[in-house]
Write a structure and sequence with these properties.
Elements lengths: L5 E9 L14 E10 L2 E2 L4 E4 L8 H7 L3 H4 L5 H12 L3 E4 L2 H14 L6 H4 L1 E4 H8 L7 H8 L11 H15 L3 H25 L1
Length: 205
C-alpha cells in the first residue's frame, strides 16, 4: 500500500550505459542516494550507499560522477544491500528525475538477483523531468537549469553524486509544487546551525 504522505527523492549513479539494447543491460548501479520527505518536510532519514559492481566503471561515466573502481573496491555488492533498499522505498512515492533511467537500472538489479519484484509493484513512481517539461515547455529542464530557474543553490554540484543530486532535486520539487515556504524553512534551519557553530568556535578562541 502506498503511503501518500511519504515521498522518497532518489538518484543513482552507474558504471555507464549500454549503447545497444536497453540502456541498463551489462551495467550496474554503483551509488544510491535518497532523501525522505513526510508531509513535504525533510525527515533526515536518508539512504546513501556506494556499491561494488561486477564490472569496471566506464571512463565516460567517471567523467560524469568521478567514482572509480578503486573507490568501490571495499564496498558491499548490490545483493548485500538490496533488502535494506527495498524496505526503505517500500510503499513510498518515488520522485526521480528521468525516472525510466533509474527505474530501469533498479529493476535490472532486482532481476539479476532473481527477486520477484519491480519498483512499480511497491512504489508510486513520479518522473520530475516530465513534471518540469509540462510546467516549462520548450525550455531546458535538467537539474542545473531548474536550479537556475528556481533560485536554488547548486554550487556544490561540480560532479554528479546520487545523494547530492537527490537533495537538490528535493528542493527543486518543493519549489515546483508550491513549497517555497518549506524550502525557506530548510535554508533558515541550515543558517541557524551555522550561526550556532560559529558562536561555539568564537567561545573556544
Amino acid at each position: 500500500m502506498i503511503n501518500p504522505n511519504r515521498q522518497i527523492v532518489l538518484d543513482t549513479e552507474t558504471t555507464g550505459m549500454s549503447q545497444l539494447g536497453a540502456h541498463y543491460e551489462g551495467h550496474c548501479i554503483i551509488e544510491i542516494g535518497a532523501v525522505e520527505l513526510i508531509n513535504r518536510r525533510y525527515t533526515g532519514n536518508n539512504f546513501h550507499i556506494y556499491i561494488k559492481p561486477d564490472r569496471p566503471v566506464d571512463p565516460d561515466a567517471i567523467k560524469v560522477h568521478g567514482i572509480t573502481d578503486e573507490m568501490l573496491a571495499d564496498k558491499p555488492e548490490f545483493k548485500e544491500v538490496a533488502q535494506d533498499f527495498l524496505d526503505y522505498i517500500n510503499g513510498a512515492e518515488l520522485l526521480i528525475h528521468n525516472a525510466p533511467f533509474d527505474v530501469g537500472f533498479m529493476d535490472y538489479e532486482f532481476r539479476k538477483l532473481n527477486l520477484n519484484v519491480k519498483t512499480d509493484d511497491i512504489c508510486l513512481v513520479t518522473d520530475t523531468l516530465q513534471m518540469a517539461r509540462q510546467m516549462y515547455p520548450g525550455k531546458r529542464n535538467n537539474l542545473d537549469a531548474l536550479c537556475d530557474r528556481l533560485g536554488i543553490d547548486n554550487s556544490k554540484r561540480t560532479l554528479h553524486g546520487a545523494l547530492l543530486d537527490a537533495e537538490i532535486l528535493a528542493d527543486v520539487y518543493l519549489m515546483m509544487t508550491g513549497g517555497k515556504q518549506i524550502y525557506s524553512m530548510k535554508k533558515n534551519l541550515l543558517s541557524l546551525k551555522l550561526s550556532v557553530l560559529c558562536k561555539k568556535k568564537r567561545r573556544k578562541k
